[in-house]
User: Fold this.
Amino acid sequence: MTEEQLLKNLSVPEGRIDAVLDTDTYNEADDQFALAYMLGCGEKVSLKAVYAAPFFNEKSSSPKDGMLKSYDEIMSILELADRTELSGSVFRGAEEYLADEKTPSASDASRDLAARARLYSPERPLYVVAIAALTNIASALIAAPEIAENIVVVWLGGNAYHSGRDCREFNMEQDIAAARVLFSSGVPVVQLPCAGVVTQFAISEQEFRYWLGGKNKVCDFLVDNVMRAQRDWDGMPWSRIIWDVTAAAWLMNDGGRFMDSALLPCRMPGYDLKYSPAADGKLIRYVRYIDRDALFRDLVNKLLKYGN
Assistant:
């Protein structure tokens, strides 16, 4: 890929594009918003496939269990959104994280991504919105490194360079090996750091209830899910960060209407959970500011469409 093409692919895409979504949907209350939002962005994004990603925390008994629960959650969202025609394009992902940086954790998701990406080119890339550990994507890149020029990965992961938290972030530290594969692969990468950047996209209980509560079945599911996640609320005001919507919103960021970014040299995540300068000095697109109100308005507008 030429430098000119790389820089173009690191810019907000023009026109309607093809995309896939890689998501640990059952992990928290925000992936569901991201999937519903992407489904509502049909004027700009043609969603071709959805991949269930592994995760392991208090909501799963293993990475495999997290992936399978996410697969079921994806199917539930598609049914709620009356988009079951996409059910055949939902793929189960890896059952384990990468054992090392050379061995894929093969799955239906990684095989589909490898095969699908071969249909694209640097001039017409496939956009991969990644809102989970990078296991599925890294596995596809290990098995088929030639696809690196045919995709653009928009990843919510890691923390802001200025945050002092380095790589101590759920998506990053679940599979550091996969993150290292991505950043060394030559893939054009857009990184949305969590602490210090995406933390700006917080929504209060009152806003959830006022703008989305009782509007349609998709909105009701999303709001109820957030309320369940906040069940230990102690009567004081609270807000919740809807992290994953921001990665999908990058594709809609024409004119910088939702976020500000810069081209910066890649920083490689280490197994010590610290960043270090990448040896090749490759540029990535680094998001550094979220216009919370502009993005929230667009999210509301997209979700209200499900009632029409």
